[in-house]
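Hi U.,

Before I forget, here's the chain from the pilot set. I'm dumping it here mostly so it's searchable later in email.
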Amino acid sequence: MKNNKKTLTPEELITERVACILDIKQLWTIIINNNIIPNGMQQKFNLNAVYEQIKKAEIKLVEIKTAIQLANLGFTNLTEIPANNIQSSIYLLQQLKERVVKLNAISTKKEDGESVVLTRKFISKEIELLNNEISKIEEKLIVFNSKVNFEIAA
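Structure:
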């Protein structure tokens, strides 16, 4: 069985984070710039596939951000993090909220002779699903934070 683990320094993780953020931005630019096309014109990109790439890249970004945070706290492996932690949920929440913003930025207003790839109906449904997931994570954070007591020097 192949071992898919690699060891990275915090600096390398930061470089990966920057690259991942740039990839996500470029993918959103593709969607935003290519959602409306003239009728009969060949679509340059499969926007549904691009959207799926964005979702995968967001998960990777959450993992990278979590790894950076852990490295800064002195951990050397994701398996060292306590099972009751919620840090990755905080980063996931951030990504989901950003996705809602980006989805809202996609134009679906077409003129005669144009077609829309990702329709307003599709975007609205995605936003509804995301808002439900956001609400669940926010509730999880409220419950978690209400049960945690943190001791600091007085």
